[in-house]
Design goal:
7-stranded mixed beta sheet; 6-stranded mixed beta sheet; 13 strands; Phosphoribosyl-aminoimidazole Synthetase, Chain A, domain 2; 341 residues; 11 helices; 60s Ribosomal Protein L30, Chain: A
């Protein structure tokens, strides 16, 4: 039986029934491999821990080079590793100019310099099968021997911390790629502030600072599907329930403005720039303090429970809702709306 796949992440059922059943030769050196919510692979090699991640940029247009470096670096950092080597495939549509390629490569160059990462290789081509540029990135990092993390490490009783705020990436993409659409609803100052959120996409320092503080059991980088999707993936990977305090999830004013203007849910918007951290309760105050000293906001937003208690979002007014499996990112609604207009 076959069916049409929705836009966005492949459904969990398809991952389990198709993707995860076709993984080639097993390897005992692979310590963390494919799984729900697992951001990057971890491989043991001659006493070293190598961390690898790959991700495309398909939900943005103007800053795809910058995004490609950072979203892949973020995944590596969630494993407790510092990103070191980046590779990419840059695909351009028919009729593209050298200026288009130059713009993407300059973004990649600047992003790599900001993280002290080396471009180690890649591929570039012009192809008639796409209608806008696509960059597929691949990041390699190295972790200290014996110290790595996965999304499956959260434990019952752990508290959940989120850094920065929800919807950072989605807000920046919409404000940059759909400026004319937003101008019908928002002033130029708000739009410009939203565009500048691209500067806050990285969570490398968030992750490494939290790890140095101690008490971290698992981390996850919520990207497509937003913070709610990221929380569900973290709970699913760990086989746990979770209780989320919905009123505590931070949302920037710029994100609120963009979401209200276009009828979006800021908790379901691409959220690179936020980091989800599952940590021992006795360590959370120290983790938040260390992050604060680095100028990184961090907020307690929930706790992990036994799976039998379910996965729920609760609110101060007594309302609640079930936290459900991944759903299409709200940013794609803006693409659809733009095409219709």
């Amino acid at each position: 039986m076959t069916g049409r796949l929705p836009i966005g992440k492949v459904p969990v059922s398809s991952l389990k029934n198709i993707v995860f059943r076709n993984l080639g030769m097993p390897d005992s050196w692979l310590l963390v491999g494919p799984g729900i919510g697992e951001d990057a692979a971890v491989v043991r090699s001659d006493g070293r821990l190598i961390v690898l991640s790959t991700d495309p940029v398909t939900g943005a247009m103007a800053n795809i080079g910058w995004l490609s470096v950072h979203i892949n670096a973020n995944d590596v950092a969630t494993r407790g590793a510092r990103p070191k080597w980046y590779l990419c495939s840059v695909m351009l549509p028919k009729g593209s100019s050298e200026d288009a390629l130059r713009k993407i490569m300059r973004q990649i160059h600047r992003a790599c310099l900001s993280l002290k990462v080396t471009v180690a290789g890649g591929h570039s081509e012009v192809t008639p099968v796409i209608n806008r540029p696509i960059v597929v990135g691949f990041m390699v990092g190295e972790a200290e021997c014996g110290r790595y993390f996965s999304s499956s490490g959260a434990e019952v009783g752990d508290l959940l911390i989120v850094t920065k705020s929800s919807g950072i990436e989605g807000t920046a993409i919409i404000a940059t790629d759909f400026t004319d659409l937003l101008k019908k609803h928002l002033d130029s100052t708000t739009i410009r502030r939203a565009q500048l959120l691209y500067r806050r996409i990285s969570v490398v320092e968030d992750a490494l600072t939290a790890l140095d503080a101690g008490g971290v059991h698992a981390m996850h980088d919520p990207t497509e599907g937003g913070v709610l999707c990221g929380i569900w993936e973290l709970a699913e990977a760990s086989g746990l329930g979770v209780r989320i305090y919905g009123d505590n999830i931070p949302i920037l004013n710029e994100t609120k403005a963009v979401s209200k203007a276009l009828g979006l849910n800021p908790l379901r918007m691409m959220s690179s720039g936020s980091l989800l951290i599952a940590a021992r309760p006795s360590s959370c105050e120290r983790i938040i303090s260390r992050l604060s000293r680095r100028g990184i906001e961090a907020t307690l937003i929930g706790e992990f429970t036994d799976l039998k208690q379910g996965r729920k979002i609760v609110y101060r007014d007594g309302g609640s809702a079930d936290l459900k499996p991944p759903f299409p990112d709200d940013v794609y609604n803006v693409f659809k709306r733009s095409e219709e207009e």
